[in-house]
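batch job 7 of whatever, protein = Enolase
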Amino acid sequence: MDSLIEDIIAREILDSRGNPTVEVEVYLSNGQHARTAVPSGASTGSKEAVELRDGDTLRFGGKGVRQVIQNIEEIIAPDLQDLDVRDQKSIDETMIGLDGTDNKSKLGANAILGVSMACARAAADYCDLPLYAYLGGPGATRLPVPCFNVLNGGVHAHWQGADFQECMLVPYGADSFRESLRWGAEIYHALQALLLEKHLSVGVGDEGGFAPAVDSNHESYDLLVEAIRRAGFEPGKDCGIAIDPASSEFFKDGKYQLRTENRALSSAEMVDYYAEIVRNYPVVLLEDGLAEDDWENWKLLNEKLGSSIELVGDDIFCTNPKIIAQAIEDNIANATLIKLNQIGTVTETIAATRLAQFHGWGAFVSHRSGETTDDFIADLTVALDTGHLKSGAPARGERVAKYNQLLRIEEELGTAASFAGKKAFVRPVRG
Ligand SMILES: C=C(OP(=O)(O)O)C(=O)O
Ligand SMILES: [Mg+2]
Protein backbone atom coordinates (compact mmCIF):
# COMPACT_ATOMS: atom_id res chain seq x y z
CA MET A 1 0.00 0.00 0.00
CA ASP A 2 1.17 3.53 -0.83
CA SER A 3 -0.08 5.15 2.36
CA LEU A 4 2.29 3.41 4.75
CA ILE A 5 4.70 5.39 6.88
CA GLU A 6 8.20 4.73 5.61
CA ASP A 7 10.33 7.13 7.59
CA ILE A 8 10.14 10.04 10.01
CA ILE A 9 12.89 12.60 10.43
CA ALA A 10 13.09 15.60 12.75
CA ARG A 11 15.25 18.67 13.10
CA GLU A 12 15.82 21.54 15.48
CA ILE A 13 14.61 24.88 14.12
CA LEU A 14 14.02 28.29 15.72
CA ASP A 15 10.64 29.58 16.82
CA SER A 16 9.41 33.19 16.76
CA ARG A 17 11.13 33.96 20.07
CA GLY A 18 14.44 32.64 18.82
CA ASN A 19 14.18 29.44 20.87
CA PRO A 20 14.78 25.97 19.49
CA THR A 21 11.75 23.90 18.57
CA VAL A 22 10.98 20.73 16.63
CA GLU A 23 10.21 20.31 12.93
CA VAL A 24 9.07 16.87 11.75
CA GLU A 25 8.83 15.27 8.30
CA VAL A 26 6.90 12.10 7.58
CA TYR A 27 7.71 10.11 4.42
CA LEU A 28 5.25 7.67 2.87
CA SER A 29 5.92 4.55 0.85
CA ASN A 30 4.74 6.34 -2.32
CA GLY A 31 7.40 9.03 -1.90
CA GLN A 32 5.04 11.77 -0.63
CA HIS A 33 6.10 13.66 2.45
CA ALA A 34 4.67 16.31 4.80
CA ARG A 35 6.19 18.68 7.33
CA THR A 36 5.00 20.36 10.54
CA ALA A 37 6.51 22.36 13.38
CA VAL A 38 5.66 22.54 17.09
CA PRO A 39 4.88 25.80 18.95
CA SER A 40 5.77 26.66 22.55
CA GLY A 41 3.98 28.61 25.31
CA ALA A 42 5.28 31.06 27.93
CA SER A 43 2.28 31.38 30.26
CA THR A 44 1.69 27.68 30.59
CA GLY A 45 -0.79 25.68 32.67
CA SER A 46 0.76 23.33 35.22
CA LYS A 47 -1.14 20.35 33.80
CA GLU A 48 0.03 20.78 30.22
CA ALA A 49 1.67 17.78 28.56
CA VAL A 50 5.42 18.13 29.06
CA GLU A 51 7.53 20.00 26.53
CA LEU A 52 10.85 18.16 26.73
CA ARG A 53 14.00 20.27 26.71
CA ASP A 54 17.66 19.28 26.90
CA GLY A 55 19.13 19.45 30.42
CA ASP A 56 20.73 22.78 31.15
CA THR A 57 22.36 23.22 27.79
CA LEU A 58 21.63 26.69 26.52
CA ARG A 59 21.72 26.72 22.76
CA PHE A 60 20.64 29.67 20.61
CA GLY A 61 19.69 31.38 23.92
CA GLY A 62 17.09 28.70 24.75
CA LYS A 63 17.19 25.09 25.85
CA GLY A 64 17.58 22.73 22.91
CA VAL A 65 15.42 19.85 21.72
CA ARG A 66 18.12 17.39 20.62
CA GLN A 67 16.76 14.67 22.90
CA VAL A 68 13.34 15.17 21.35
CA ILE A 69 14.79 14.74 17.86
CA GLN A 70 16.47 11.54 19.01
CA ASN A 71 13.21 10.27 20.56
CA ILE A 72 11.40 10.85 17.27
CA GLU A 73 14.01 9.27 15.04
CA GLU A 74 15.12 6.38 17.24
CA ILE A 75 12.05 5.45 19.30
CA ILE A 76 8.90 6.71 17.56
CA ALA A 77 9.86 6.29 13.88
CA PRO A 78 10.71 2.55 14.03
CA ASP A 79 7.45 1.81 15.83
CA LEU A 80 5.26 3.74 13.40
CA GLN A 81 6.93 2.32 10.33
CA ASP A 82 4.44 0.53 8.05
CA LEU A 83 1.37 1.92 9.85
CA ASP A 84 -1.22 3.40 7.51
CA VAL A 85 -0.81 7.17 7.81
CA ARG A 86 -4.60 7.60 7.60
CA ASP A 87 -5.04 5.69 10.85
CA GLN A 88 -4.50 8.73 13.07
CA LYS A 89 -5.97 7.08 16.15
CA SER A 90 -3.60 4.08 16.02
CA ILE A 91 -0.65 6.37 15.31
CA ASP A 92 -1.45 8.58 18.31
CA GLU A 93 -2.27 5.65 20.58
CA THR A 94 0.97 3.91 19.62
CA MET A 95 2.95 6.99 20.65
CA ILE A 96 0.97 7.39 23.88
CA GLY A 97 1.69 3.72 24.66
CA LEU A 98 5.38 4.11 23.81
CA ASP A 99 5.61 7.09 26.13
CA GLY A 100 3.73 5.36 28.93
CA THR A 101 3.29 8.43 31.17
CA ASP A 102 0.18 10.50 31.91
CA ASN A 103 1.75 13.72 30.70
CA LYS A 104 3.98 12.59 27.80
CA SER A 105 7.05 13.42 29.85
CA LYS A 106 9.14 10.48 28.67
CA LEU A 107 9.24 11.14 24.93
CA GLY A 108 8.05 14.75 25.16
CA ALA A 109 4.72 16.19 24.01
CA ASN A 110 6.75 18.18 21.48
CA ALA A 111 8.03 14.91 19.97
CA ILE A 112 4.63 13.22 19.92
CA LEU A 113 2.71 16.25 18.64
CA GLY A 114 5.17 16.97 15.84
CA VAL A 115 4.73 13.42 14.53
CA SER A 116 0.96 13.43 15.08
CA MET A 117 0.49 16.66 13.09
CA ALA A 118 2.88 15.61 10.33
CA CYS A 119 0.99 12.31 9.92
CA ALA A 120 -2.35 14.16 9.67
CA ARG A 121 -0.93 16.45 7.00
CA ALA A 122 0.68 13.55 5.11
CA ALA A 123 -2.62 11.65 5.21
CA ALA A 124 -4.49 14.67 3.82
CA ASP A 125 -1.94 15.00 1.03
CA TYR A 126 -2.17 11.29 0.30
CA CYS A 127 -5.97 11.59 0.04
CA ASP A 128 -5.48 14.63 -2.18
CA LEU A 129 -7.56 16.74 0.18
CA PRO A 130 -6.83 20.06 1.86
CA LEU A 131 -6.11 19.47 5.56
CA TYR A 132 -9.37 21.10 6.73
CA ALA A 133 -11.41 18.84 4.44
CA TYR A 134 -9.48 15.73 5.45
CA LEU A 135 -9.97 16.44 9.17
CA GLY A 136 -13.48 17.89 8.93
CA GLY A 137 -15.19 16.30 5.94
CA PRO A 138 -17.51 18.01 3.46
CA GLY A 139 -19.30 19.94 6.24
CA ALA A 140 -16.16 21.91 7.10
CA THR A 141 -17.16 25.15 5.41
CA ARG A 142 -17.48 27.78 8.17
CA LEU A 143 -14.69 30.35 8.61
CA PRO A 144 -13.87 31.49 12.17
CA VAL A 145 -13.95 35.00 13.58
CA PRO A 146 -10.30 35.99 14.08
CA CYS A 147 -9.41 37.44 17.49
CA PHE A 148 -6.45 39.78 17.06
CA ASN A 149 -4.26 40.31 20.10
CA VAL A 150 -3.27 43.91 19.42
CA LEU A 151 -2.24 44.89 22.96
CA ASN A 152 0.27 42.55 24.58
CA GLY A 153 1.01 42.61 28.29
CA GLY A 154 1.98 40.35 31.19
CA VAL A 155 4.68 37.82 30.56
CA HIS A 156 4.43 38.32 26.77
CA ALA A 157 5.71 41.88 27.24
CA HIS A 158 8.10 41.00 30.08
CA TRP A 159 5.79 42.92 32.47
CA GLN A 160 6.61 46.22 30.76
CA GLY A 161 3.04 46.76 29.54
CA ALA A 162 -0.42 46.05 31.01
CA ASP A 163 -0.99 43.35 33.66
CA PHE A 164 -3.41 41.61 31.34
CA GLN A 165 -1.64 39.49 28.77
CA GLU A 166 -3.96 39.86 25.79
CA CYS A 167 -6.41 42.48 24.64
CA MET A 168 -8.02 41.32 21.43
CA LEU A 169 -10.06 42.91 18.64
CA VAL A 170 -12.97 40.77 17.49
CA PRO A 171 -14.36 42.00 14.14
CA TYR A 172 -17.44 39.79 14.27
CA GLY A 173 -19.68 42.16 12.27
CA ALA A 174 -17.96 41.46 8.95
CA ASP A 175 -19.69 39.16 6.53
CA SER A 176 -16.64 37.15 5.50
CA PHE A 177 -13.26 36.17 6.91
CA ARG A 178 -11.48 38.32 4.34
CA GLU A 179 -13.46 41.36 5.43
CA SER A 180 -12.85 40.69 9.13
CA LEU A 181 -9.12 40.41 8.47
CA ARG A 182 -9.16 43.74 6.65
CA TRP A 183 -11.05 45.38 9.51
CA GLY A 184 -8.60 43.93 12.04
CA ALA A 185 -5.59 45.24 10.10
CA GLU A 186 -7.16 48.69 9.68
CA ILE A 187 -7.94 48.97 13.40
CA TYR A 188 -4.42 47.75 14.22
CA HIS A 189 -2.99 50.60 12.17
CA ALA A 190 -5.42 53.11 13.72
CA LEU A 191 -4.26 51.91 17.15
CA GLN A 192 -0.64 52.41 16.17
CA ALA A 193 -1.37 56.01 15.12
CA LEU A 194 -3.28 56.62 18.36
CA LEU A 195 -0.42 55.29 20.51
CA LEU A 196 2.08 57.47 18.65
CA GLU A 197 -0.15 60.49 19.20
CA LYS A 198 -0.26 59.74 22.93
CA HIS A 199 3.53 59.24 23.05
CA LEU A 200 3.04 55.61 24.04
CA SER A 201 5.37 52.88 22.80
CA VAL A 202 4.57 51.04 19.58
CA GLY A 203 7.12 48.32 20.34
CA VAL A 204 5.49 44.89 20.14
CA GLY A 205 5.20 41.86 22.42
CA ASP A 206 5.56 38.16 21.63
CA GLU A 207 2.29 37.97 19.67
CA GLY A 208 2.83 41.07 17.53
CA GLY A 209 0.52 43.39 19.48
CA PHE A 210 1.73 46.72 20.86
CA ALA A 211 2.92 46.73 24.45
CA PRO A 212 2.47 50.28 25.80
CA ALA A 213 3.09 50.96 29.49
CA VAL A 214 -0.52 51.80 30.38
CA ASP A 215 -1.51 53.06 33.85
CA SER A 216 -4.45 50.70 34.27
CA ASN A 217 -6.02 47.77 32.48
CA HIS A 218 -9.05 49.94 31.68
CA GLU A 219 -6.80 52.24 29.65
CA SER A 220 -6.19 49.35 27.25
CA TYR A 221 -9.93 49.11 26.54
CA ASP A 222 -10.27 52.85 26.07
CA LEU A 223 -7.47 52.66 23.51
CA LEU A 224 -9.16 49.78 21.66
CA VAL A 225 -12.56 51.47 21.56
CA GLU A 226 -11.00 54.68 20.28
CA ALA A 227 -9.01 52.81 17.61
CA ILE A 228 -12.12 50.92 16.46
CA ARG A 229 -13.97 54.26 16.06
CA ARG A 230 -11.06 55.98 14.30
CA ALA A 231 -10.88 53.16 11.78
CA GLY A 232 -14.53 53.86 10.95
CA PHE A 233 -16.19 50.99 12.80
CA GLU A 234 -18.74 50.86 15.60
CA PRO A 235 -17.63 49.23 18.86
CA GLY A 236 -20.10 46.52 19.89
CA LYS A 237 -21.74 46.36 16.47
CA ASP A 238 -18.86 45.78 14.06
CA CYS A 239 -16.11 44.88 16.46
CA GLY A 240 -15.95 43.66 20.06
CA ILE A 241 -13.20 42.93 22.53
CA ALA A 242 -11.84 39.67 23.96
CA ILE A 243 -9.55 39.52 26.98
CA ASP A 244 -7.04 36.98 28.20
CA PRO A 245 -5.57 38.36 31.43
CA ALA A 246 -3.71 35.00 31.92
CA SER A 247 -4.42 35.61 35.58
CA SER A 248 -2.50 32.57 36.90
CA GLU A 249 0.57 34.69 36.17
CA PHE A 250 -0.40 37.39 38.70
CA PHE A 251 -2.23 35.27 41.30
CA LYS A 252 0.09 35.28 44.31
CA ASP A 253 -0.69 34.53 47.97
CA GLY A 254 -4.39 34.08 47.21
CA LYS A 255 -4.75 37.53 45.61
CA TYR A 256 -4.70 38.96 42.11
CA GLN A 257 -1.81 41.42 42.08
CA LEU A 258 -2.59 44.27 39.68
CA ARG A 259 0.86 45.78 39.35
CA THR A 260 -0.07 48.74 37.15
CA GLU A 261 -2.89 49.77 39.52
CA ASN A 262 -0.89 48.97 42.65
CA ARG A 263 -3.57 46.87 44.30
CA ALA A 264 -4.29 43.25 45.17
CA LEU A 265 -7.83 41.87 44.70
CA SER A 266 -9.55 38.83 46.20
CA SER A 267 -11.23 36.39 43.79
CA ALA A 268 -14.67 37.92 44.46
CA GLU A 269 -13.28 41.43 43.90
CA MET A 270 -11.64 40.26 40.69
CA VAL A 271 -15.00 38.92 39.46
CA ASP A 272 -16.58 42.33 40.22
CA TYR A 273 -13.68 44.01 38.41
CA TYR A 274 -14.48 41.97 35.27
CA ALA A 275 -18.21 42.60 35.65
CA GLU A 276 -17.48 46.32 35.51
CA ILE A 277 -15.32 45.93 32.40
CA VAL A 278 -18.09 43.91 30.74
CA ARG A 279 -20.65 46.63 31.66
CA ASN A 280 -18.52 49.40 30.16
CA TYR A 281 -16.90 47.85 27.11
CA PRO A 282 -18.09 45.56 24.29
CA VAL A 283 -16.46 42.43 25.72
CA VAL A 284 -17.60 39.10 24.27
CA LEU A 285 -14.99 36.72 25.68
CA LEU A 286 -12.91 36.43 28.85
CA GLU A 287 -10.22 33.75 29.00
CA ASP A 288 -8.48 32.71 32.23
CA GLY A 289 -10.22 35.45 34.20
CA LEU A 290 -9.28 33.53 37.33
CA ALA A 291 -6.22 31.41 38.04
CA GLU A 292 -5.88 27.69 37.46
CA ASP A 293 -5.63 27.17 41.25
CA ASP A 294 -8.86 29.06 41.89
CA TRP A 295 -11.33 26.39 40.59
CA GLU A 296 -14.01 27.10 43.25
CA ASN A 297 -14.22 30.78 42.36
CA TRP A 298 -14.63 30.02 38.65
CA LYS A 299 -18.15 28.95 39.67
CA LEU A 300 -18.80 32.46 40.95
CA LEU A 301 -17.34 33.94 37.76
CA ASN A 302 -19.61 31.72 35.67
CA GLU A 303 -22.68 32.59 37.76
CA LYS A 304 -22.04 36.31 37.32
CA LEU A 305 -20.87 36.49 33.72
CA GLY A 306 -21.54 33.13 32.04
CA SER A 307 -24.91 34.23 30.69
CA SER A 308 -23.54 37.35 29.01
CA ILE A 309 -20.09 36.45 27.62
CA GLU A 310 -17.99 33.43 26.71
CA LEU A 311 -15.81 32.30 29.62
CA VAL A 312 -12.85 30.30 28.35
CA GLY A 313 -10.50 28.10 30.40
CA ASP A 314 -6.91 27.85 29.19
CA ASP A 315 -4.32 27.18 31.92
CA ILE A 316 -7.04 25.59 34.04
CA PHE A 317 -8.16 22.97 31.44
CA CYS A 318 -5.02 22.48 29.34
CA THR A 319 -7.04 21.02 26.42
CA ASN A 320 -7.36 17.91 28.57
CA PRO A 321 -10.63 15.98 28.02
CA LYS A 322 -10.59 14.64 31.61
CA ILE A 323 -10.29 18.12 33.13
CA ILE A 324 -12.83 19.58 30.69
CA ALA A 325 -15.31 16.80 31.61
CA GLN A 326 -14.95 17.72 35.30
CA ALA A 327 -15.36 21.41 34.51
CA ILE A 328 -18.55 20.70 32.53
CA GLU A 329 -19.91 18.72 35.45
CA ASP A 330 -19.04 21.50 37.92
CA ASN A 331 -20.43 24.13 35.51
CA ILE A 332 -17.49 26.50 36.05
CA ALA A 333 -17.13 27.99 32.53
CA ASN A 334 -18.76 27.73 29.12
CA ALA A 335 -15.81 27.28 26.77
CA THR A 336 -12.35 25.77 26.55
CA LEU A 337 -9.25 26.97 24.82
CA ILE A 338 -7.82 24.47 22.33
CA LYS A 339 -4.03 24.26 22.04
CA LEU A 340 -2.59 21.19 20.34
CA ASN A 341 0.61 21.15 22.34
CA GLN A 342 -1.16 21.32 25.71
CA ILE A 343 -2.39 17.77 25.20
CA GLY A 344 0.06 16.52 22.58
CA THR A 345 -1.84 14.64 19.85
CA VAL A 346 -4.28 15.52 17.08
CA THR A 347 -6.69 12.78 18.25
CA GLU A 348 -6.90 14.08 21.81
CA THR A 349 -7.25 17.66 20.59
CA ILE A 350 -10.23 16.63 18.48
CA ALA A 351 -11.67 14.72 21.46
CA ALA A 352 -11.35 17.79 23.72
CA THR A 353 -13.06 19.99 21.12
CA ARG A 354 -15.89 17.55 20.45
CA LEU A 355 -16.49 17.04 24.16
CA ALA A 356 -16.89 20.77 24.68
CA GLN A 357 -19.13 21.20 21.64
CA PHE A 358 -21.30 18.21 22.58
CA HIS A 359 -22.14 19.99 25.84
CA GLY A 360 -22.88 23.34 24.20
CA TRP A 361 -19.52 24.77 25.22
CA GLY A 362 -17.36 26.88 22.97
CA ALA A 363 -13.97 25.71 21.70
CA PHE A 364 -11.53 28.54 21.01
CA VAL A 365 -8.52 27.45 18.94
CA SER A 366 -5.24 29.14 19.82
CA HIS A 367 -1.68 29.60 18.69
CA ARG A 368 1.14 29.76 21.29
CA SER A 369 3.22 32.80 22.13
CA GLY A 370 6.26 31.01 20.66
CA GLU A 371 5.16 30.12 17.13
CA THR A 372 6.44 28.97 13.78
CA THR A 373 5.10 29.65 10.31
CA ASP A 374 3.21 26.34 10.38
CA ASP A 375 -0.46 27.10 9.65
CA PHE A 376 -1.95 23.80 10.92
CA ILE A 377 -4.37 25.49 13.35
CA ALA A 378 -6.05 27.44 10.55
CA ASP A 379 -7.21 24.19 8.94
CA LEU A 380 -7.98 22.64 12.32
CA THR A 381 -10.31 25.52 13.20
CA VAL A 382 -12.35 25.13 10.02
CA ALA A 383 -12.33 21.32 10.30
CA LEU A 384 -13.73 21.41 13.84
CA ASP A 385 -16.10 24.31 13.16
CA THR A 386 -15.03 26.17 16.28
CA GLY A 387 -16.23 29.54 14.95
CA HIS A 388 -13.34 31.53 16.41
CA LEU A 389 -9.58 31.39 16.78
CA LYS A 390 -6.77 33.57 18.07
CA SER A 391 -3.43 33.87 16.35
CA GLY A 392 -2.08 37.18 17.62
CA ALA A 393 -1.91 40.51 15.84
CA PRO A 394 -2.60 40.92 12.11
CA ALA A 395 1.17 41.46 11.73
CA ARG A 396 4.34 39.34 12.01
CA GLY A 397 4.92 36.36 9.75
CA GLU A 398 4.28 33.54 12.19
CA ARG A 399 0.91 35.10 13.20
CA VAL A 400 -0.35 36.06 9.74
CA ALA A 401 0.64 32.63 8.36
CA LYS A 402 -2.55 31.32 10.01
CA TYR A 403 -4.76 34.22 8.90
CA ASN A 404 -3.43 34.02 5.35
CA GLN A 405 -4.17 30.29 5.22
CA LEU A 406 -7.75 31.04 6.28
CA LEU A 407 -7.99 33.46 3.34
CA ARG A 408 -6.93 30.64 1.02
CA ILE A 409 -9.45 28.24 2.57
CA GLU A 410 -12.25 30.79 2.17
CA GLU A 411 -11.27 31.36 -1.45
CA GLU A 412 -11.13 27.64 -2.17
CA LEU A 413 -14.55 27.01 -0.60
CA GLY A 414 -16.02 29.75 -2.77
CA THR A 415 -19.79 30.01 -2.45
CA ALA A 416 -19.85 27.12 0.05
CA ALA A 417 -17.97 29.27 2.60
CA SER A 418 -19.77 30.98 5.46
CA PHE A 419 -18.50 33.20 8.28
CA ALA A 420 -19.25 32.43 11.94
CA GLY A 421 -19.93 36.04 13.03
CA LYS A 422 -21.04 37.14 16.49
CA LYS A 423 -23.01 33.94 17.17
CA ALA A 424 -19.67 32.21 17.69
CA PHE A 425 -19.47 33.91 21.11
CA VAL A 426 -23.00 33.23 22.31
CA ARG A 427 -23.27 30.24 24.64
CA PRO A 428 -26.58 28.73 25.67
CA VAL A 429 -27.23 29.17 29.40
CA ARG A 430 -27.07 25.85 31.26
CA GLY A 431 -29.14 25.09 34.32
C1 LIG B 1 -1.43 31.95 23.81
C2 LIG B 1 -1.22 32.07 25.11
O1 LIG B 1 0.02 32.25 25.61
P1 LIG B 1 1.10 31.10 25.80
O2 LIG B 1 1.29 30.44 24.50
O3 LIG B 1 2.31 31.81 26.31
O4 LIG B 1 0.50 30.15 26.82
C3 LIG B 1 -2.35 32.09 26.06
O5 LIG B 1 -2.13 32.23 27.27
O6 LIG B 1 -3.49 31.93 25.65
MG1 LIG C 1 -4.47 32.04 27.64
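notes: The mean pLDDT is 96.
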